[in-house]
Amino acid sequence: MSARGVPRLAPASVLAVVREGGFAAMPGLERPRRIECGKLSQRQRERLQRLLEEIDRLDPGEPAAAGADRRVFRLFLEQPEAECWQCALDETQAPRGVVGLWQHGPGALDEPDT
Amino acid sequence: MPATTRPGQSHGFMPPHVLERILSHGNARLQRSAQATLKADAQFRLRNASQAAARPADGKRGGEPARYIYTAAQQEILPGERVRSEGDPETGDLAVDEAYLWLGATYRFYWEVFARDSIDAQGMALLGTVHYGEDYDNAFWNGAQMVFGDGDGELFNRFTVALDVVAHELTHGVIEREAGLIYADQSGALNESLADVFGAMVKQHHFEQAAEEADWLIGEGLLTDRVNGRALRSMAHPGSAYDDPVLGKDPQPGHMDAFVNTASDNGGVHINSGIPNRAFYLAATRLGGFAWEAAGPVWFDALRDPRLARDADFATFAEITVRCAEQRFGADSPVVDAVRQAWVDVGVLR
User: Fold this and answer.
1) Does the beta-carbon distance from B139 to A69 stay under 8 Å?
2) Domain of B79?
3) Which among B2, B48, B165 has CB closest to A55?
4) Which DSSP string do the residues of B137-197 spell out, in sequence order?
5) What is the pLDDT of residues A4-56, one digit of tens each?
6) Residues of B with catalytic annotation?
7) Which of A79, B11, B209, B228 has a Cα-to-Cα distance from B305 of 20 to 30 A?
8) How many separate domains does chain B show?
9) B243 located within any domain
């Protein structure tokens, strides 16, 4: 495992990115974006690995409870035959890369600032 | 904290409401751990809320709001640059001027109907930031101020377009100060419902609509013409506000028989709020006239009632509204019957 707890991504790894909550919480907006590592290029997979390690280093804890109608990103990394990993981030804490993954899928991993 | 689990293990987070339950019921070791986590969370919140020293002046006297509107200029910064303060003329920026206008209408509602001077009943300055983020499809209360996105223009218009949205967010501040309802599960759905209830009443008060004339929609005008929907929520008919290929179908239930058990969105706080929302609608329309004259004061009394625990469920809140109706209007009043029957009709009371 790298960083504190992110497993090494394998071709069979699948990352689900969910954004939930908010004043306009609606089922269509909460559908998970699934990033299948087997469909990523080597470069994209490495960038995704670095992004997950960055989040892990942030160690954000459970999203801050202050206020109401806040949105939260939840990331679930599924790994057959290996440890799974998950994280929840208040959207104000989320790196741009996470927002990009939710908005654009794997294509966000080709953007310069991801 | 990020967590690793073996395949097949349940994925569990430790939300604040669970930590608080551990504090009251767990063993000593768990209580120490929960206390430390909650302390860290409180410190995080303090760091992220607007600094008290930086806050502009509160209102000087009751009945006079102190509004301050900021622009984030499409960035995700708070509070941003101040662009309109109390008494300033219109700026010509729609979002800025709507936020100013609707915060004023909401302040006026609380003052004229309940003699309440702002969020904290002590003239607290009303801070609103508009133009938050790029294509930002949300509005929220961050514990210190209100925040409004411009919407993406495809699905959502700007979030200041609807008075009830602005009133909803301000009311979250009132709820936080009065009841501190934990934002998860049934207490979280009550929190959301109360924000909708008072949001709807602010709108009806501003436009002088009786209960039977009102549309009882939350967020009308927020969805663009490309969306198959009228609003975000319907208090009269939960589950009927929208049915769209992209946004999905409105999932709100209007009866306990259809209560949705889900871990998403803090236990479905924006879903199950449909049940108490409909109870208020039923009570208000059964009583007729202006909602803020009978049903509204009962709900307001209940929100401020010391018996309302932070983790209250629907049934507890319902019982409190009945007691409040008795105290305010008398045990033989038709208001008591209307309130009790409304909760029976949505399956919360028997």
Assistant:
1) yes
2) 57-161
3) B2
4) --EEE-SS-EEEE---SSSB--TTS-HHHHHHHHHHHHHHHHT---SSHHHHHHHHHHHHH
5) 588 899 999 999 999 999 999 999 999 899 999 999 999 999 999 999 999 98
6) 169, 270
7) B209
8) 2
9) yes
